[in-house]
Amino acid sequence: MKRDPIYGMIAEFDSATALVEAARSTHQAGYKKIDAYSPFPIEGLAEAIGFDHDEVPLVVLIGGIVGGLTGYLMQYWMSAVDYPLNIGGKPYHSWPSFIVITFEMTILFAGISAVFGMLALNGLPMPYHPVFNVPRFALASKDRFFLIVFSSDPKYDAAGTFDFLQRLGPRSISEVPG
Amino acid sequence: MDEQNKIAVDTQAPVIEPGYTFGTVTEKISAIVLTRPASNGWFVGFGVAFLMTMMLLYAIGYLVLKGIGIWGVTIPIGWGFAIVNFVWWIGIGHAGTLISAILLLLRQSWRNSINRFAEAMTLFAVACAGIFPAIHVGRPWLAYWLFPYPSTMGVWPQFRSPLMWDVFAVSTYATISAMFWFIGLIPDMATLRDRATHPVARIAYGMLSMGWRGSARHWHRYETAYLLLAGLATPLVLSVHTVVSFDFAVGIVPGWHTTIFPPYFVAGAIYSGFAMVLMLAIPIRKIYGLEDFITELHLQNAAKVMLATGLIVAYGYGIEAFMGWYSGDRYDAFTIWNRLHGPYAIPYWSLLICNIFIPQVLWIRKLRTTPVALFLVSGVILVGMWLERFIIVVVSLHRDFLTSSWGMYYPTRWDWMTYIGTIGMFLAAIFLFVRLLPMISIFEMRTLLPEAEVKE
User: Fold this and answer.
1) Which of these, A163, B96, B127, B351, has the minimum number of CB atoms within 10 Å of its CB?
2) By the CB < 8 Å criterion, does B347 face chain A?
3) CB under 8 Å to B61, separation ≥6 — which residues?
4) What's the pTM value of the predicted model, to 2 decimals?
5) Which ipTM value was assigned to this complex?
């Protein structure tokens, strides 16, 4: 696969407010392939870069339903179909006794789906990523805020994008090698 | 932050002392792990805890060799220390999930500085708890029979038994708590990866961070997943001790067969859990100079939670005594009389003193803000809650319906070694945790700073 020598252009900001404003202007200026990086979750930042489809809740819902069905059907099949055992004269299919494990399995599967679903949708684990090539990016996990325009964006051109980002008042701008 | 919280913060001690920035919060917490050298005190503390862990392994090893006859358990008291300690430890674990999940849903921002180590405490406590039922089954190497796996024997577990429910409840709880804790750590692992200078530390934290880079899309999914996990953990934590109480309440032994057990067990769990949180938080904040992050507000709030849950527990004792009289059941009435005057009267009266009378000093504001006093009261509560489980397990079993099946329970040194050994294992894990991982959630502390707010 041919790799673009340049991955994008990244601008560094001082505050959460500056980043949200910059992200919003960049998105409104027609740049669609952008991303923002911050040391903590910022409300409204994902919307500012045009992210509007979070599939995590759906994954968790499906996980929970599958878990609940698995839990109940497992107990039903084992106690009433595969090896019915008479325990104190109780019915083989004694559903009230099956509720607790059904509940626990619902929670277990939903929880596992939440964690692994989130990681998978985020494409993690991913030990290498081009943005790590920018030395100042180490501050993204401390107190700096970054906005990147990917070179795959149709509007991207090195000089034009640099000028555009410059107008947003960043602290620094660097090109990200691919 | 909404209006109500603002007022609360203005009139009380703050959640975080003023004057911190993103940079200083990050440096202060990560420095404990990355640059601060381990003190002699740490080595001594860890060494003692490690030796206690070795004692635990010795006790378990001998148990596997000889069988549970080395313990004091006999018929009628077949559930001795093993079950007492299991319930005690699993109860302690509850505070971690309460702090990290329930307080998150209730938007209690003060939780941000104590949730990380409270969750760690949960994990280690559940690990200690899990040892007991496994070694109590008699042939511990067959404990996996508890799980429904296709075997050549063709039989399946008996799902109508609360003991089976417990297997699922506790293993789900352990799994969810571990994942919740790990997910919370990912962004902080990235911070440590970027700060660490030692190559081994960089690689280790780098791998644990999973390549986290703080992308806005990632944060969005992350927060959704975290919130959903909190929503799932909330009913889960309430269910765990409820199911543990079913182990007793579904039986017909007087002293076990009561409907008050589920809520009273959950309240007792949170009671002892917060006591353990305080017993850990108070020395840790002092030793590592974290008074600015774990402030008086946290100590006060924890004390208030203990006061409230302590009163629920007291209500539970009251209802038990009332029902013993009101039911007109002579066995139930005898159970209460036997607790107050029988051979185990001293543990029962100690329990009342530890769990009901002494904690009432927490009504005094001055004491709620005095760390030493809180530490001591927490210790008393932990002893009291251990005695409560001892009373429930042993005193109920030793006098059942027929005088011919009455007996006494005397713990042996192996019982004590196993119990004290798990305390050592718990402490050893805590000692390692504070040195290897950020004990306060760095990224959640950043969100508490005023500069984190986006001004439109």
Assistant:
1) A163
2) no
3) none
4) 0.90
5) 0.91
